[in-house]
Amino acid sequence: MSLISEMVCVQCGSGHAPGTAMTCPTCGPDEGILEIRFDLNRARSTLTLDTLRSRTLSHWRYRELLPLDASHCPQDGHIGWTPLIESPRLAQALGVRRLWLKDDGRNASGSFKDRASSVGVAHAMQLGFSTIACASTGNAASSLAHCAAAAGLQANIFVSRIIPDGKLAQLLAYGARVFKIEGTYADAYDLCTRACRELGWYNRNCAINPYLVEGKKTGGMELAEQLRDDPPDWVACSVGDGCSIAGVHKGFVEMHDIGITDWTPSMLGVQAEHVAPIADAVHSGQLDRSGDGDTYADSINVPVPRNWRKAVNAVTRSNGAYVRVSDEQIKRAVRETGQLTGVFAEPAAAAAVAGVAEAVASGVVDRDASVVAMITGNGLKDIRGAIDAVGQPFVIPPDLKHVHDIVQQSASQDHANTRT
Ligand SMILES: *Cc1c(COP(=O)(O)O)cnc(C)c1O
User: Fold this and answer.
1) Which residues are registered as beta bridge partners of 238?
2) Which of 215, 279, 273 is nearest to 242 (CA)?
3) Is 60 exceeded by the pLDDT of residue 420?
4) Is 272 helix (H, G, I), strand (E, B) or coil?
5) Got the DSSP string for 134-197?
6) Ligand 1 pocket check for 353: Cβ under 6 Å
7) Please, which residues have CB within 8 angstroms of residue 203's CB and are 6 or more apart in sequence?
8) Are 96 and 124 contacting, i.e. CB atoms less than 8 angstroms apart?
């Protein structure tokens, strides 16, 4: 048995027995998102610093706090326990005292979503499903396709037209059945939900499926463990549907509540300038569903987020804040992250870094702060987005003279730059 004690509706607060529903029967699937609560007293008796020492270096190390029966909790080690990279040069460029990157682009399919998909696939298998589905702007899908292929399940994926080629190639390579919807992400999402209902597929869609957030939670749990003696003031996370920041925050809270840490950080939610419905909802307490803005960071291009309430709560309960960043700021962050740390971030991942700069500039985060930026996806997933940000190579004939010319030009440019 898992240690789930109950499922609580984030809208009306009603409690439900585990396993009885995916969403609150009273509030419905749009607003009645459930949150899983665990028996933390039982968890704390076996999930300790001591037992953690001998466990697998993957997100399965937190099995007491995962929503899976012990016999269905895998033990393999290719997802999670991603590197935490201290980045002093990027810290200086952003204007903070200390900065770490949590490089989740190094997960099996190259994104943070692997934490959720792997839990979804294990949960589907526990329930006896053989087919699983999701709607996604990209990473949730490529991640699900990977986890399904690894476990031998069939995956059905609903994508919108804005999916970058790298992510689409992953889906097809992992053998998923791909439906490319002539419509928006919202259309793809609704179609997937209906297909799951009618065809009896397991629905991986993160917002309405509370089990998935539990996988994302492990990002926060790992940070709690990795930085136990070095607490960060802020953890920056880019926000689309809102499940990632909600999950990471829940991970910190639970690690605190079972006594592994005596701190929790403030969450910095980062949204794109023109697609910021959750940042707006923090003040209004309501979601404006009419948004039609756009951003080049496809993974956070979510005008109608499903998990907005959990994402709002993560920030307000942690004394955090939301900031908005422009596409230009995101592109700059792609460049600086690559150049100053050697981490190649996809646009939505670099948005977290851009958010740190913006939060410092607007006085939300102070210069003495220590900050973690969640790098949620690998830059190779969206090559066109990357090239947009980092520019073009020097195209020259095979002649050394041109190399000299360009080296000289760069040197005088650097010289000019250091004087201004
Ligand atoms: C999904 C995703 C996010 C945002 O996560 P949400 O749960 O949608 O808020 C951020 N970055 C990347 C790379 C993602 O794939």
Assistant:
1) 270
2) 279
3) no
4) strand
5) EEESSHHHHHHHHHHHHHT-EEEEEE-TT--HHHHHHHHHTT-EEEE-SS-HHHHHHHHHHHHH
6) no
7) 22, 133, 134, 192, 193, 196, 209
8) no
Q: What integer pLDDT is reported at residue 275 of this predicted model?
A: 96
Model confidence, pTM: 0.94
35-74 pLDDT, tens digit each: 999 999 999 999 999 999 999 999 999 999 999 998 999 8
242 lines ligand 1 (CB under 6 A): yes
Considering only CA atoms, which of 200, 149, 211, 205 is closest in space to residue 177?
149
With a 6 Å cutoff on the Cβ, whether 349 touches ligand 1 is: yes
Does 374 sit in the ligand 1 pocket, CB within 6 Å? Answer: no
Helices of type H across 200-242 = 210-226
CA dist 376 and 266 (Å) reads 18
Amino acid at the residue 234? W
List b or e across 128-147, with b for residues whose CB sees 16 or more CB atoms inside 10 angstroms.
ebebbbbbbbbbbbbbbbbb
- Write the DSSP string, 107-123: STTSBTHHHHHHHHHHH
pLDDT digits (tens, 9 = 90+) for 215-271: 999 999 999 999 999 999 999 999 999 999 999 999 999 999 999 999 999 999 999
Let me know if 358 is exposed, middle or buried by CB neighbors in 10 A (0-12, 13-18, 19+). buried
Assign 364 to helix, strand or coil: coil
Cα 265 from Cα 319, distance rounded (Å): 9
Which residue, chain included where needed, has tokens 């209902």? 197
CB atoms within 10 A of CB 98: 16
C-alpha Rg value of the chain to the nearest Å: 21
DSSP 323: E
Determine how many CB atoms are found less than 10 A away from the CB of residue 46: 12
Ligand 1 mutation pick, 244, 245, 249, 307, max ligand atoms within 8 A of CB: 244
Q: Give the position, in ligand 1's atom list, of the atom nearest the Cα of 237.
A: 10
Q: How far is the CA of 138 from the centre of ligand 1 (A)?
A: 9
Of the candidates 228, 266, 271, 221, the residue with the CA atom closest to the CA atom of residue 247: 221
> Which token pair is 282?
């923090």
Cβ(267)–Cβ(245) below 8 Å: yes
